[in-house]
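Sequence in, structure out.
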Amino acid sequence: MPTTPPSLQALLARRRPGHSLEAPFYLSDAVFAADLEHVFGRHWLFVAVEPQLAEPGDYVSVDIGRNSVLLVRDDDRQVRAFHNVCRHRGTRLCAAQHGAVGNIVCPYHQWTYDLAGTLIHADHMPADFDRSRHGLKPVHVRTLAGLIFICLADDAPDDIDAMLRETAPYLAPHRLADCKVAAQVDIIEKGNWKLTLENNRECYHCVANHPELTVSLYEYGFGYRPSPQNAEGIQRFKDTLAASHARWEAMGLPSREIDTLDQRVTGFRTQRLPLDRAGESQTLNAQVACKKLLGGFTAAALGGLSFWTQPNSWHHFMSDHVVSFAVLPISADRTLVRTTWCVHKDAVEGVDYDVKNLTAVWNATNDQDRRLVEESQIGVANAAYEPGPYSPYTEELVEKFCNWYVQRMRALAL
C-alpha cells in the first residue's frame, strides 16, 4: 500500500547532520512550494549585474516562481526594483527579459509609470482618482560592487549590511559596475535547485568530470584527506596559498577566507585563491581571456576571487573578467542556471577578447554539471535512495548549504 509522505516538519526534525537530504526535499511539490515561500520569498537573492542596467531606462525582468520582478535604472542612475505588475488590473508590464524604456507603459491599457515607479498617466479615470496611491509596488534591492540583490519579503533581513560591509573591499577593486556584459547563457537543469547548489558547493567531482575547469585549478585546492601519499602536495598548495595571499594583500587586495555560510541569515563565503599554470584566469590555458584588465589592475596573475551567497549564487572575479551564476527554481525538478560573463566596458570584441574563448570553460562545465544534477535527480527518485554521508574533506560546503537551508526552514516554515 502507498505510504503517506512525511510532513515537512518531520523531515526537518530528523535531518541527519553530515548527510544528504531525504528524497522528498528534492521531489515533493509541497516542499518546493515551501522553498519558494520561505527561502526564495524571504531571503536576499542575487538576480543581475549592474552592467545589465548600464543606462537610465535599461531594465531586466526576473521570474522567481510565480513572481516577476522588474529591475530598472532610473534617471538618477539608481537601481530600482518593482513587482512587474500593473496597478490597474495586474497585467505584466515587461515580458522581455531585458530592454530599454523611457517610461514603463502597461501594454494593456497604457497606464504609464516613470522610472521611479510613480504612476504619471492613467487615461479615462475619474477626477478624484489619486495617481499617487497607485505607483508600482517596490521590491527591496541592494547592490554590492556591481552585483544586484533583491528580497521579496516585506521585511528583508538586515544582516545584508554586514555582508556588504565585509565583502565590498574584496569585490570592489574589480569594478564590475564599469564592465559590460560579453555573454549570458541560460540553461535548464532537470533537477531540484538544491541539487544544483549542492553540486556547486564541492569539487569532489571535479577531476573526474571537469577537464576544462581543472586546467586552472590546483588539485589540492579541492580539499583532500591528508595521507602519507599526498602530504607533500597538500603542503605545497598551502605554501602557495599563503605566499599568494601575502602578495595580493600587499597590493591592497583582501584575499583571506571569510565564511558565514551557515552562521547568518544572509550567509556568504569569499576567498581569493591562486590559479594553476599561468595563474591568470579560468580559461583553457589559464591565461587571460581579455587583454584589457579590469579596474586599475596592471598584473594579470591575481588568481580567482570566489564569492558564494546563500541561497542562489556563486561568482568568480579575475583580473580580466567576472563570471556570475544565478540559480532560479522553476519547479521541483526544473532549475534555471543563468551565467553572465562581464569584461571591461572599453574592451572590444574580436580585438581584446573572443567570446568563444571567454566562455569555453564554464559553458563546458555547466553542461557537465547539468548532466550530474539530472542524474542525481533520477537517483534520488529511486526507492533505494537513502541519505549518504558527506566527505568532511571535500564536501564541507555542501554540509554548510544544507545546514543553512534546514536552519532557515525550521525558523520560518514551522
